[in-house]
Fold N-carbamoyl-D-amino-acid hydrolase.
Amino acid sequence: MSRIVNVALGQLGPVQRSDTRERVVARLCEMMREAHALGAHLIVYPELALTTFFPRWYLEDEAEIDSFFEREMPNAATQPLFELSRQLGVGFYLGYAELAEEGGTRVRYNSSILVDRGGRIVGKYRKVHLPGHAEHEPWRRFQHLEKRYFTPGQRFGVTQAFGGTIGMAICNDRRWAETYRVMALQGAEMVLIGYNTPVHNAPAPQHDDLSLFHNQLSLQAGAYQNGCWVAGVAKGGLEEGVDSIGGSLLVAPSGEVVTRCLSKDDEVAIARCDLDFCAVYKRSTFNFDLHRRPEAYGLIVARKGETLAADGTPWRD
Ligand code: CDV
């Protein structure tokens, strides 16, 4: 089986509150057609791609909050994307707000799915690192209430798809070294990440001018230090008065940027990714089995899911 995956970044421009899901899906389909014409096997879309980034608002009405969530996937609004995927043979990665039913309880997640070239869902991920706050903070120019609206996901896994081992992450996850490492320990060769990142960082406005730099730094470091490809895809531009970064990037296991989006609008950029290019990094500088020293790292995920205490003995609570 070929180990070449032609990956398209499917960056979205702003989605306003008045935009219907049908309208957004039409934009996603348009980008999928363009990606297909460019030879893509997989197109990566942003976090919470189907609606505006609603955690910027403090909402109390449960029905209003639910209106931003999907109860099933695919559903009537997203069906055309799945059909086009099957028709064109282009898989996709899509972020959305998920309303799940667990033992009679409703649970809200910030989720994403991986869909293969036959239009079948082959992987699902629920965001682990939820940034922001849970209560209304009126001093902010806009809210970031992910801790209010979502329950955190519990694990990073990998999926066998597109001829390789694929990891999934969402937005704030990309800033954490553990995200990539936990998946690389499971063999990840490519990590897909969608994001919504406002330029303005309310708790640390002195970082505003560095927002694109920090994005690129995180994606490049994650790729290089784990010998894997990393695709980071934005929903950018001026959305309901909030300016978000674009800067979608595809990074090689060498840490080099192989393609990027230049606008803050709907934009497709594509690159040919050879999954076998990971091996030279995973066999040399980042040969985990040979060079990692989990016994010196203390209480962290050590190797292959094993957790060790600082002295190297198996951890016990
Ligand atoms: N959607 C996000 O997770 N955004 C965060 C913001 C709050 C900084 C991010 O890490 O990009």
